[in-house]
Amino acid sequence: MKTHHLRTHRSDENLPRTGQLAWAIAEVAADEVEVGDDVTEMVINRVIDNAAVAAASLTRAPVAAARAQALAHPVSVGGDGSTVFGREPGRRVSPEWATWANGVAVRELDYHDTFLAAEYSHPGDNIPAMIAVGQHVGSTGRDIVRGIATGYEIQIDLAKAISLHAHKIDHVAHLGPSIAAGLGTLLHLDREVIFQAIGQALHTTTATRQSRKGQISTWKAHAPAFAGKMAVEAVDRAMRGQTSPEPIWEGEDGVIAWLLDGPDASYEVPLPEPGEAKRAILDSYTKEHSAEYQAQAWIDLARKLHNEHPELLEPHAIRSVVIHTSHHTHFVIGSGANDPQKYDPTASRETLDHSIPYIFTVALQDGSWHHVDSYAPERAGRPDTVELWKRVTTEEDPEWTRRYHSLDPNEKAFGGRVEIALADGRTIVDEIAVADAHPLGARPFARENYIQKFRTLAEPVLAASEIDRFLEVAQRLPELTGEELGGLTFAAEPGVLAAIPTSKGLF
What pTM value is reported for the model? Predict the structure, then answer.
């Protein structure tokens, strides 16, 4: 890997294009280096993972609304159009709208892959745009694999170097540029076009983190889909010769100077050398449970404590629970956020998903976690749950913060230590570093786990034959022709979508 030194520049410094981060990213995207077998296999896994969580969310209101919007935008004249999850493969829409609808479906349950460093991200959000555009223009499966590998590489490299949340900027500001770069690889565009698309994609996808604060709304699922849609449109404009603000990161009125660390800031961004394979997807990790990633390990630990300490389940047995964890977990999904909504049994699913006190309480009581049942209003409002929930707090532990930010994958951790004070005076202490499904966890996810996740989540809405068909197509991804790529979707069983109430909008 090489390091790109990033800092702000006054206009009179005339920073050349070749010195700009957007150009360096464009060079990575334009590099025709092949994708290795291990990366290809992981791309397939994540395509299956995305489809699994999209299937599970087909009947949810935000997904139904996004799908209805997309279906109102028929195929544009420039290609074959793109498929929409849930509808038959022959029902095509314009690619930016397929990116929108499928992106919302993928993100709605917060149940796909993650990468956490200086910034956090869900790099699987790159995938809907790659498939939509690839279907539209007739790309091969191999092109899709290459585009996805680039998207993961760029988003993860940016997340390693540049914190957005520290300045209350939503993490999708790294996603717009990564999708634009991935589409550049997919479409074999030249550096100039990719450069312009990256600048436009970044410029149009910076927003505040209020979408993940307080009473979290349905926009949380839409935010990455919006970034994907903007990136597709940015690529279209750049291909037509339209230019973007530059230098977009480094300018004196640019992103660093006014949205991030200010005019005196600098960053070191790791990027692949010319000819170096794009392998960052192997640094990311997926979810066994439908919850914020920092909650994954805590669900596993709570499940373990449930099984090992039945005395914890006795009424009024627990006096207090203190979770010692990283700065991010404490201040974003813990009591350090100072969000009263995180303790509100009437809070939205999106809010409960970002409340480690709630998640730990339910997982401890139930010894399991379910993507629907664990968030049900009657589950959140159960009196014994509310009573214990209010006794669960978090505290930052400097050592767990250090491990959270460690660049050593063998040391990097997303868990912590829990201290449970019992009413009888005893204290139970346990800890966990990474989730069971993490590559270094107790049960790392492998292909069979991704397949089982898809089967489990898709079974309520897809016919068994459709599940088998999709899995067969997905596992042949690198070999798919442009015509076969249209099969990389799934249709719901008859009546499933028709039963969903929808509201009329403008389109």
Answer: 0.93
